[in-house]
Amino acid sequence: MLMEWIEVGLGLVLLIFAGDALVKGAVNLALRLGVPALVVSLTVVAFGTSAPELLVSVQAILDGAPGLALGNVVGSNTANVLLVLGVPALIATMHTGACEVRRDYLLMLGATSLFIGLCFTGVLVWWHGIVLLVVLTAILLSTFLSSREEDAEVEGADDAMAGWKVGAFLVMGLIGLPLGAGLLVGGATEIALAFGVSEAVIGLTLVAIGTSLPELATTVMAAIRRHADVALGNVIGSNLFNLLAIMGVAVLVGPIPVEAGFLEVDLWVMLAATLLLVPFVFLRRDITRLWGAVLFGLYVAYMATVLA
After folding, report:
1. How far is residue 54's CA from residue 182's CA, in Å, rounded to a whole number?
2. Which helix (H) or strand (E) holds 257?
3. Which residues pair with 112 in a beta bridge?
């Protein structure tokens, strides 16, 4: 079992660093090619930061473990709310009341409801992916048209970056991502077999937490520096992209049967976690240490239920 855990750990490290390298390389290449900053922010950065989850989901389907792919997305969305917002709030109150994210939240809530509805067809197939990607395209187009007059700050942009460095980042990202995804999925699948649990459970727990680590680390550091107020918007954007982009692309690769456990528990936990954001989005409440304890406690209880 030691080798399998090493595979998972190495896979996660590769995914985190390769994903970051791909974003830096792709962003600076796009800007050099004259692509508008807002377009780069809405597409290149958004897809790039979700690349680890996307590669893991695609690799899982190719390896015959579609439950792991679905568990990864559903588990990540739940972890983003309960863990990524809960843990930093335990360190310091997150002043999310200043965030104006109502539109984005309603879009995420709509995407969550749509996704749950599609899951109740029993098997996610290619046409479900088309529906999800069409909705994503409409949202990106609407965002672009409503924000095109604004100056966009692009994550990872560096006007002074040398051309060879841009190429090196792209190569590292393009090689490291599939390699990391292969190691993570392979190790996680073996661990699932060894413990006698399904790939879905491993996806909901080990893989979901692992692929959420970059967001968690970023938010914790922001909380320590008292700059975690943007975390709410980042979580909403990440969850929206997970459902529409990652699952949209993944089911084009292969069908994903929806196990009974998802329909009975996990999808509803994801929806409940989404609804927990209502006070922070519409009532402009800050996420205090008490709320952080509640969110983190709920996540621990959910993990205990899944693993039981």
Report:
1. 12
2. strand 256-257
3. none
Which H helix or E strand runs over 97? none
DSSP state of 221: H
Which tens digits make up the pLDDT trace of 118-164?
999 999 999 999 999 999 999 988 877 776 655 556 666 777 788 88
Q: Domains of the chain: which residue ranges?
A: 2-307
3-state secondary structure of 286: coil
Phi, psi (degrees; rounded to nearest 5) at 36? -55, 145
Distance, in Å, from the CA atom of 155 to the CA atom of 99, rounded to the nearest integer, reads 19
CATH number of the structural domain 2-307: 1.20.1420.30
Cα–Cα dist 213/80, whole Å: 9
- The tokens describing 247, both together, are 């699952």
Torsions phi, psi for 34 (to 5 deg):
90, 15
SS3 percent helix, strand, coil of the chain, rounded to 5, is 80, 0, 20
Cβ-based neighbours of 273, under 8 Å, separated by 6 or more: 77, 78, 81, 82, 298
Q: pTM, whole model, 2 decimals?
A: 0.85
Distance separating alpha carbons of residues 79 and 186, to the nearest angstrom? 22
> Please, how many CA atoms are within 13 Å of residue 137, restricted to the half-sphere of its CB?
8
